[in-house]
Amino acid sequence: MVLRILRDFKKMQEIAHALRREAKTIGFVPTMGALHRGHLSLVRRARRENDYVIVSIFINPVQFGPKEDFKKYPRNFKTDTLLCKKEGVDIIFYPSAGAMYPAGYKTYVEVEDLGDVLCGEFRSRHFRGVATVVNKLFNIVQPTKAYFGQKDAQQAIIIRKMVRDLNIPVQIRVLPTVREADGLAMSSRNSYLSPAERKQARVLSQALALARDLIKKGNRDSLLVIRKMHQLIKRKKDARIQYICVVDPKTLAAVQKIKRQVLIALAVYIGKTRLIDNALVNSKYA
Amino acid sequence: MVLRILRDFKKMQEIAHALRREAKTIGFVPTMGALHRGHLSLVRRARRENDYVIVSIFINPVQFGPKEDFKKYPRNFKTDTLLCKKEGVDIIFYPSAGAMYPAGYKTYVEVEDLGDVLCGEFRSRHFRGVATVVNKLFNIVQPTKAYFGQKDAQQAIIIRKMVRDLNIPVQIRVLPTVREADGLAMSSRNSYLSPAERKQARVLSQALALARDLIKKGNRDSLLVIRKMHQLIKRKKDARIQYICVVDPKTLAAVQKIKRQVLIALAVYIGKTRLIDNALVNSKYA
């Protein structure tokens, strides 16, 4: 099968419709391009579980704030294409921003509450933009299964909730974060880091490991865990903590006393680069 | 073919999915029940244009304001079933409110601007509720074509916009308002009217006829047209005007000088019953 690149959403929709009519299953991996091993782990799983694999590459303008990195977000379409080819992707859907959001565009999907905390507190309307574009992409690509990374934990939670609430006929798969050898979570934004920053960036996963360890040793007090993580991260000279939270993995409500599984999530600037990471920690088996 | 009544959305979704896989077309008429000849005109068109016809009956709680008529809205499921049977409907989808909006429901679809004017000015969040439930129903019923009445002009405009913006793979058909012999637009809410009120309710369509006549005679000033409509309606003792607007049929922006096709829309209380009506008037051929 030859890799096809489609820009037109109507053509994409027609093909998806025809595939579904032939009872083919479609595995879908929505991305913003600049593919790394994290994305590829999703593509491989999609390849194993479906007849067709569609990857979308679209840097979604409505999920970026006015002061965020929309313009400088890495764009590597040629490399992305080669990687998709190698992984046996059938179609890259690569729409233009003008086709996705024509003049006079007005419709947004909002998942209340879940988008206002953690990253949402600092990235107003970010998750509205994410829910909206994923909803649009689902309508265009008509996937049987769609694949997301646990790295963007809040995004995955919001998309699961949207799918359930709006009765969207798709199965959501969330796969583990893929990491560099030293623990840094794969992210297209890692390319922004200078070599010195890159070294310091390890501290996010180190802080999560520390939290896991503290909970394993019996600590049940979130504030204590968060304080220890703070102390560790602040030792890095270019690190600036945006948030560290211990929350319920479904409702994202803050957890004071750790009794069951919690999501520990953090956002840290290393220099000018904002990085996120998270871990699901089960107090029983931590 | 026997009429089936389905309450479970998963079952409905499975059947719709199977039908689409067999390349059957599905015509969908979403309703709140209390079916009248307006609804039936939609059902008949759906019957002519599709392999399968699905009618949903669901009084959508999230499109009613706290002081509105959710509780007293007419419920005639038995009569509705008989009517659907007679018209050759294949499936009535009749979900519970608890299944459509389970505890912790959080996701809403909003079409900006278009839902804030006309009815939306007085029914805050009404159109958010409409867009959300129609989006959910489309995901469940997976229609090829969906049918709406011109009577609810703003609703039809918002749904068309949602479908286009979110790339929903459905064709929207909007059919003309069906009227009683004296011109009153068919509405389930007409059953609220006392005999004396019923007579006065003719004034809505009479005011629209007057507007059409004024424009036909060369009047191009919206304010003059609106003033004349006001004067006519105010002669009825139980009539209280909520709004009369002359707007662009796509953007719903107010029109001062009538140059091309306009939508003239009004909402009038007759006693305690809120009625709406509208007319598309083409200044060239009015």
Q: For the largest beta sheet of chain A, what order do the strands appear in spatially?
A: 1-4-3-2-6-7
Q: Which sheet architecture does the biggest sheet of chain A show?
A: 6 strands, parallel
The most extensive contact between chains is: A-B, 32 and 32 residues
Spatial extent as radius of gyration of chain A: 19 Å
The number of distinct structural domains of chain A comes to 2
Counting DSSP H or I runs of 4 or more residues, the number of helices of chain A is 10
- Shape field of chain A: globular
Quaternary structure: homodimer
SSE ordering of chain A: EHEHEHEHEHHEHEHHHEEE
**What is the terminal separation of chain A in angstroms?**
44 Å
Give the class of chain A from helix and strand content and strand pairing: alpha/beta
- Assign the CATH class of the largest domain in chain A: Alpha Beta
Number of strands of chain A: 10
- Reported by name, the CATH topology of the largest domain in chain A is Rossmann fold
Mean pLDDT of chain A: 96
The CATH architecture name of the largest domain in chain A reads 3-Layer(aba) Sandwich
